[in-house]
């Protein structure tokens, strides 16, 4: 695959990946994840061209340095527990892209960011569960890139900026997480939406709609936002948003999807569209 200039610059996307293999099993109440599944299934229709490759930053992989999966044929890593047997037999045979993996490392080096490579770890459920809906035929090569332990906001915004030129080479950069991820409150259930979730989601929508410099300043101080720590006791499910925001360039981002699931607001955001 040749990473030359594409016809258009692709956007960057932060998407909610749901709970475990939620889109591929019966759930109670029935239909709980249907709206999110439908949005994921229609995501490619919003793109002006089919990506040459996909680069995914998942909430479910942290490493000592930013680490790139270099496999030509990655397996799947079923990193969820206690779900029906059939969900451990799901398949999604997307090819890897060693050339893109090398290009990612080159970009990080040029930006002064250290990186490593990984040749054994499979694609985790933050990758294959949502992308099995987005690209059901697994026709586009996929490379996974880790978060960096410590979850420093500045480092992940810088990571996104280093990756941004790949958008002009036909690479779709996806951050896979959840805009609200307080598992204790999600498990509690209930019909009412957690007010902290609604407050934080409103702050996120307002923040991503700002130009890059103002957006980055607010994201750097995200923990002081209304409902922030109640929504993310740990921030690994939020940091993929920082990467795609950094990669989105100067233009304002926008919320493109919102759902209410298990007492939380869950949203998707697009940058550079």
Detailed description of the structure:
This protein is α/β, with parallel strands linked by helices. It has one domain (12-271): 3-Layer(aba) Sandwich (Protocatechuate 4,5-dioxygenase, Chain B). Helices cover 31% and strands 20% of the residues. It is built from 9 helices and 8 strands. The strands form 2 sheets. The protein has a 6-stranded mixed beta sheet, with helices on both faces. A two-stranded parallel sheet has the order 3-4. It starts with 11 loop residues before the first strand and ends with a strand. The model has no long low-confidence stretch (mean pLDDT 95). It holds the Pfam family LigB. Belongs to the DODA-type extradiol aromatic ring-opening dioxygenase family. This is Aromatic ring-opening dioxygenase, catalytic subunit, LigB family. GO terms for molecular function: ferrous iron binding; oxidoreductase activity, acting on single donors with incorporation of molecular oxygen, incorporation of two atoms of oxygen; zinc ion binding.
